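Researcher: Structure for this, please.
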Amino acid sequence: MKLLPLTLFATVLFAPSHLPAQSASPSDGGVKVWPKGVPPEGITHKENFGNHILSISHRTSNGRVEVHQKIVDVLVIQSGEADLVTGGEVVEPVSAGENEMLGSSIRGGVRRHIGVGDVLHIPAGVPHQFFIAPGTQITYLVVKVSTSGSGQ
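Model: Predicted structure, token format:
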């Protein structure tokens, strides 16, 4: 039973390639299609819907620690693999804007290997950091959901 919503979510995200790129329009209720999981405007585009943001992230090297105080991250891994460290304590924290923090590493977090098809939910306030093995990459859909009602 728990797989049904995930299956429906993935079906919508990974639309068949025969669908043309479409923008949201009032006549269809504001539906926007990203054919094959890529925004029509390009991979660097972030689509802000007010209470959530959609984007694609591609990494070929390790990331910094990120902490979003008022944003939940939902990630759907499209290609590649990485190790993800979550939780613990941020080492050398620095402000990266309102309710955002970066750090150099995580002390005492949990490390897990992730790959194609994995879906992750990272609650607001949880430190997280990607580690990419040399010669590998990871690409994933990001849904940033605001806990305060705006996409910022």
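Researcher: Any notable elements?
Model: Residues 1-22 have pLDDT under 50 and may be disordered. The first strand starts at residue 47 and ends at 48.
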